[in-house]
Amino acid sequence: MILGSRFVKPLRKEAEDWKRNIQTLSEMVEELFKLQRSWMYLRVIFNAKDIAKVLAHETAEFGKVNKFFIGIMKKIEKNFVCMKFVTYPANHSVLA
Questions:
Q1: How large is the angle between the packed helices 56-78 and 12-46, nearest 10 degrees?
Q2: What is the rounded distance in angstroms from the CA atom of residue 68 to the CA atom of residue 33?
Q3: What is the span of the domain harbouring residue 42?
Q4: Which residues of 14-43 are buried (b: 16+ CB within 10 A; e: fewer)?
Q5: Structurally, how many domains does the chain consist of?
Q6: Nearest-angstrom CA–CA distance, 61 and 27
Q7: Is residue 69 part of a domain?
Q8: Residue 42 contacts residue 65 (beta carbons within 8 Å)
Q9: How far apart are alpha carbons 31 and 17 in whole angstroms?
Q10: Is residue 39 situated within a structural domain?
């Protein structure tokens, strides 16, 4: 590990920042996977017309979640450079 090297002293802050950003990226990707799994499961249920009639309120609530999820995915697609996405503080609270 770089932070354990005696030669890291002049670069310690930068190395620590990289470590923190990579850890944050890993956590965010994991949260996105969880969100995507849930979204895929629920999308099938709430896209069924008979379910939408019976569970109108829940279907409307899922519509909000669907819009939110698609918005996040579009942001990620536009900002394909993952470190830019990770270092933007507003994205941390969205996925927490």
A1: 140
A2: 15
A3: 35-96
A4: ebeeeeeeeebeeebeeebeebeeebeeee
A5: 1
A6: 26
A7: yes
A8: yes
A9: 21
A10: yes
Distance CA 26, CA 29 (A): 5
- What span, in angstroms and rounded, lies between the C-alpha atoms of 94 and 96? 6
Query: C-alpha angle 94/81/20, rounded to 5°?
Result: 65
Residue 65 located in a structural domain: yes
Q: For each of the chain's 96 residues, which pLDDT tens digit applies?
A: 677 888 878 888 888 888 888 898 888 889 888 989 999 999 999 999 999 899 999 999 999 989 988 998 888 888 767 666 666 666 666 555
In-domain check, residue 11: no
Q: In this structure, are residues 61 and 41 in contact, taking their beta carbons and an 8 Å threshold?
A: no
Residue type, 85: F
